């Protein structure tokens, strides 16, 4: 962590949080003075709005003119217990919803609005005004963990380490006992038939099928505990990308062949070679590791900033911002070979990585470009 003196906020905009839209074609950034929208492919500015106060999180509705806003930062524009649906065509709030406690995160699609509170998830139809469908109690969820797909939404359950999946069409509920420790990250694939989870330990990533809710794979990110920032499936669901506070981007192979080799490690390709077949050794010698990895930038940040607490029950920091800390390591796939890693904060960065093969036929990740998108 960089320990240089605290930067003067007058030196430039400060990105409180960042979020991709549904197809990763754009990403929205919440600022101390408003919000901005950028084109993912190039990192170029697409839209800038000054609203006269801080926005803690901004969630785009696809590529439409509607953006869900929650107040945040030092001088919030809106109360942190209200979600505002902003119509950028008229540059006014079209409708809003008020809650009894601060909002941790919002997810939005053409059909549904999901509002995440510390101990509750509310599910609404995207009507005007939004119509409540259901709400559920959860364990402490300060990071606003919630993944919204076309037909389902996944979020923490009432028990530690549990994932609850709500079918938006039928109203059915499914439960996955994913981890013994509190959840730190979860993701759905585009088809809605895979769920990836990580706990606050950050060493093991688990893959679950839906609707059977059975575990189909387990991957080892590393041996040392880490804060998992983001999980993201490639468009074809053949790869899973993972970032952590180790400043490392990992890619895991989800192909059927890889799943088979995970059950019976191949010493020729496994990280630990012949040791993967030796009985009685610790499990990390036989676990399934990433097939490619690269370093991404956390960015230089002021004194007192940290990626996040190790604990998934932590609830402090910047008001109105998911997890209380600027977004870091957010992953968005452009296609099956190209992915982005986005970070907020004083040193907000956009980085593009490409998956390819080296001369030996081994998969490698290389950084194709980067920029400080607020400059």
TrEMBL record:
This is WD40 repeat-like protein. Pfam families: PROPPIN. It comes from the Eukaryota. One of its GO terms (cellular component) is vacuolar membrane. Belongs to the WD repeat PROPPIN family. InterPro entries: PROPPIN (IPR048720), WD40/YVTN_repeat-like_dom_sf (IPR015943), WD40_repeat_dom_sf (IPR036322), WD40_rpt (IPR001680). Keywords: Repeat, WD repeat. It is a peripheral membrane protein. It is found in: Vacuole membrane. SMART domains: WD40.
